[in-house]
Amino acid sequence: MNQSRLICFVALLFVLSGCQGKPVTIPEEDGPMVVVSHIKESTFSFISKNKMELLETEESPYPLTAMVDIEGGQIVVTSQTEDTLFLFDTVQGKILPFITLNKGLTVMEFDRAKRMLFVADTLNDEIIQIDVDKREVQTRIAIDCSPTDLQVIDDLLFILSSETSTVFIYDMRSETMIQSFSVTERPAGMFYDGSHLWIGGHGPYGDLNKRIFAYNIKTGVIDQEVEVGLMPITIYQDQHDTYVYVLCHGDDALYKVDLDAKRVEASLSVGHNPYYLKGDGDHLYVSNLDDDTFSIIERTTFQVVNEINVPAGPYAIVLEEEE
């Protein structure tokens, strides 16, 4: 075989191996699991929902940043070191290329009704909209600054930039940017309640923030605020109850907030530098970035029922659904 044919043959093998995916061992478990990515090492953790214990930790081919469950064990993941979105198939136990874009891909938001995935591209200062069924880029939304958080509600895409302390609101029906306004310094976390956009954040150096703010999306003016803990970075609500849950990594605590009454109902301590929060009907789950633990909180009692030691840098969380 001459040299040119050898090069072509090796290239073909490389492409075929990428298409077949890289194997990941999935632990055997009767009930649903929690999948956790780690940003300080290239690993996944698998946690049993029913037993509330770590089942296994498996190596990942890449250091992972964000994860989004698009359907039935199909998880799209980003890696800032790679120029590709990957599909983690927990049924087949493989990680496969999903779509090649460019490096600098960070947070994601999935519009389940429209089957559209929105990806923050920090290299090009834009949001990439992807049709997950066609695996095609539908549009690129330029914002001229680095996007750090996304939220999709109905036909609105909210884009937060911590770099410029700005919120952008994109209307998906008209495919136009309909609003932008300045928010609190070094912002983090977003939650839209139907009329106001709640935002937390670190606040200015020397005067760190302890509040979440409700911005009128038409005027950009703060209409309401609630005092919580130091540096609220995640604001979370789901369909399972009416409370909003706020993670504060300045005091390592989770706050249960009644937005109608504008008050904190309860708070509890979690691990050091809590970062990511998800929930189901029974529990809330918190990844604690800097002490390598994973907290499980019972919703009804609002008490920590288990804290699990995991590998370094637990980050994004995906919850498997009950079958």
UniProtKB/TrEMBL annotation:
Lineage: Bacteria, Bacillati, Bacillota, Bacilli, Bacillales
Record InterPro entries: Haem_d1_sf, Host-pathogen_enzymatic-act, WD40/YVTN_repeat-like_dom_sf, YNCE-like_beta-prop, YVTN_b-propeller_repeat
Protein keywords: Signal
Source organism of this protein record: Halalkalibacterium halodurans (strain ATCC BAA-125 / DSM 18197 / FERM 7344 / JCM 9153 / C-125)
Domain (YNCE-like beta-propeller): residue spans on this chain: 115-317
Listed PANTHER family: DIHYDRO-HEME D1 DEHYDROGENASE (PTHR47197:SF3), PROTEIN NIRF (PTHR47197)
Record protein name field: BH1943 protein
Pfam family, one: YNCE
Keyword Transmembrane helix: no
Transmembrane segments: none
Gene3D superfamilies listed in its UniProt record: YVTN repeat-like/Quinoprotein amine dehydrogenase
Signal peptide residues on this chain, from the entry's feature table: 1-21
Superkingdom, natural source: Bacteria
